[in-house]
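Consider the following assembly input.
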Amino acid sequence: MKNDLKLIQLERLYAILNRVYKEVPFYRSLFNRYNLDPEEFSDLTELKKYPFTTREDLQKNYPYQMFAVPLREVVRIQASSGTTGEPIVVGYTKNDLTLLAELNAKALQSMGITKDDVLQITFHHGLFASAFGIQSGAELIGASVIPINLEDPRKQLKIMQDYRTTTMVCTPSYAIWLSEVLLQTDINPHALMLKRFILCGEPFTEKQKEHLQSLFKVKVYDLYAVMEIFGPGVAFECREQKGLHFQEEHFYVEILHPETLEPVNPGELGEIVITTLTKEAFPLIRYRTGDLTIPLKETCPCGSPYLLTTHIVGRKDDLVMLRGIKFHPSQIELLLEAVTGEKLPFQILLYREEGIEKVLLLVALSENLFTDSFSAQENLKKNLEERLYLEFNLPIKVKFVEEGSFEKKNGKILRIIDKR
Amino acid sequence: MKNDLKLIQLERLYAILNRVYKEVPFYRSLFNRYNLDPEEFSDLTELKKYPFTTREDLQKNYPYQMFAVPLREVVRIQASSGTTGEPIVVGYTKNDLTLLAELNAKALQSMGITKDDVLQITFHHGLFASAFGIQSGAELIGASVIPINLEDPRKQLKIMQDYRTTTMVCTPSYAIWLSEVLLQTDINPHALMLKRFILCGEPFTEKQKEHLQSLFKVKVYDLYAVMEIFGPGVAFECREQKGLHFQEEHFYVEILHPETLEPVNPGELGEIVITTLTKEAFPLIRYRTGDLTIPLKETCPCGSPYLLTTHIVGRKDDLVMLRGIKFHPSQIELLLEAVTGEKLPFQILLYREEGIEKVLLLVALSENLFTDSFSAQENLKKNLEERLYLEFNLPIKVKFVEEGSFEKKNGKILRIIDKR
């Protein structure tokens, strides 16, 4: 089985390397620069000679230059939202969408989902792409799907009761919020029909998982999504709950040391690097996801020959993930500069209030801006908050403070204080 | 052609009446009460003996009692969001979803969309269902779809440029906002690849249509959606732009006088009443949509044998439609009572600021609430605004006023002041 997989991977790697060489100018010039001839590719170990693809490459080739098919064969385009001046775009052919549905169907089936299940899918619209992907998989199985886009956990709980939901699909932070609101109601969690949570979009801790499992008397499964690769379904947790299974017929996965970029041993932390084996519109070679995980030595009792790792344990960079929306401190920096015309010191405070994740942006005004009138400051604050909302689709409060009040480490202002 | 259509309708009406009689207890007892035996149905004119179905019927039979198939055959469930204590639900089988895609594909093709087109679909998440429906139709044609859920018109315009969008799908109010922002930029609208707007989710005026058409040098098409029936695609405007074509092989349409409920003549205003002919999961008999239109005497030069009407000219009731989200004043009333414990006089002010539709809720506090401290009032205001946001997914500002300041008519407080 494992050998069959390696054979499939080899054939598909050969095909995809040659296809991107032929169809994507970016890869052709990259491979030429490295003196690589994909025609000569004959062994899996040779892949390590090939250069990585990064998010920056996707940004530089925005919007359509990474596509390996003509635009008329592309039926869906997902644009990443919320990045300042650095958008990226992912395309799908009809076959890509079929594969997306199949990969998600397989993931959901491994979690025990059948056509008798009722899935309640609730994502912030920043995670639209994930909602589409999971929904297409569930519909392929024939399960009933309730796509619902509501913030209010009380309504979600009502829907969960009324519709006899068996499977709740959401971000980990939303699940925790739901659990906190549940305790304020007279709903008996054991009287719900709920069997499982599927968490997607953010890392979560073992403690959070256990809290949800014991409160709701359910199982909690992890579904790994990489927007640049495909959305959800790249890896998933099966009913054995031993960690993430990567769908290796379709993704060649390397777990590499974040600094040396050499393969790590089982038990060691590494960055997930993915080569797509079957994607038509938007194939990627050695894409650095930035997500960190730990490959496991054990195989899963489910019998899967797939690579097994722990959950995602973090991000290589300091990306902020909040309510399923991701942003970089550098985006805040750019926005502050765009609005005020100055590079201002700032700090991002993440905290939780009544179960909801919140962001406060502390900004130290320059002397120039501080000497303005109170109402001018109020206007600036309002203006900033509106721009932040438009940029990130998140309510971000702004507070003006003195520079001395910032939390520092080794004399440097900490960009992010995470008190969640 | 017209006769063929009538024959198809007759056969399908017979089948659907018998099916709901057999499968849906609500219809069985209703038909029995009216002494109707669907086995005897033999002529289209007999349908007028059948009772109407209303939104209230759907609410009373929430969540699953109107379904005509077992839940395990339902693959998608759309719940209406934003209604206080009166949710409704719509279900789809796999065949229903296929039909949804086909109806939308036909509508889009009639607007001239081919696989070379790039559709940018932008809806508030309250219109999720419409986004899904239009997307499935566009993918069936093989057009490229960019589903993007962003408020910021500047970003939408950037995407429109970068992705060479040919078709913008949005609500009329969003399109107007976009046009206003466009004029503040240095983008030359004629240099865009845009060919058409497809407007969905709200009525729009001829003036708005002309404004968009001349500014962008495009055509503007109307796509009619009824959430309870199917979502988008129930009726559409073809390239001739003569009005709405109803897809009568799948929907038996009556246009009835809003008071007498007798069929109106061409040129007269009437309410759209729909009987679904082919829906499996959630068939409806003589459903009163509450939408008003005017049937036209002319046939369309496109040769379609379908019923042709004007655009939707309004709603039978005083439903507020704002940014694609619908709500009733009665929902505001209930929410105010829930939060304050009192029935408070209020008025809903709809206005437009920088092209964006906004809502201000004016509330007259009772003596009891007025004598509280300033900070208590501030808290109440904040609390109300948060609850309103959770309820309607819309930012609604609250202002406390004296009762005397309300605009009245015949001594009665006007519930809605529409200054948009």
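Chain A has two domains: 89-317, 328-418. Ask yourself how this observation constrains the way the partners meet.
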